[in-house]
Specification:
9 helices; 16% strand; alpha/beta; three-stranded parallel sheet; 258 residues; single chain; five-stranded parallel sheet
Amino acid sequence: MNDPLVIAGRIFSSRLLVGTGKYKDMAQTKEAIAASGAEIVTVALRRVNLADTGAESLQAAIPPEKYTYLPNSAGCFTAEEAVRTLRLARELGGWTLVKLEVIGDKLSLFPDVEETLKAAETLVKEGFEVMVYTNDDPISARKFEALGVAAIMPLAAPIGSGLGIQNPLNIEMIVKQSSVPILVDAGVGTASDAAIAMELGCDGVLMNTAIAEARDPVMMARAMKLAVESGRLAYLAGRMEKRTHASASSPQTGLISL
């Protein structure tokens, strides 16, 4: 089926984006990402040295010639810090497609929307294609789209919580009002969560912990791949109408009289 994900004019066949952290070693990272079918991998610049190209480096295991790197500003708590971090990504490897996140609280890791808006405005003006991590507020999403971001990434639940989508109505509202791609980011715990996100109309799902901290990360990566694909198909197919009464599968007309 010809149903690509398009972000900032770039075309991808997979709607699953994955992180590169929390795995037990680089070999498992490589195997799980391959099993996920993901084409975009997000990398925290404050935790990974992208200038390292040695045999045990991330770039050796996950070659940027094969995968699209999405440098992010994880761990940044101010707009200034986030902008400086993502400018470094452009200097290091020419990356302009970036994931912006500005954290407002160390415990919940919820985004600081005000600081994120400031950073997004600066980065867009400087030519970055910004995929922005934010809360699940439709009003905030509208403001980010007005700034010209490439994609909006509302959280489903707190980062790394695995709680699944806590406010599906909010996510659905953001999807319906937006003309840029919407990708659920943070809070996915298992395959059904990913499928629900896609059934709500999201364009994709980004996850890390749900795969990396599974009992079998490689198997979970495969499950997530299939969940995203099936959720997308279900959304495009259009679910049946919900009813408050039964509706027999066999018709009541034309019955044989006994």
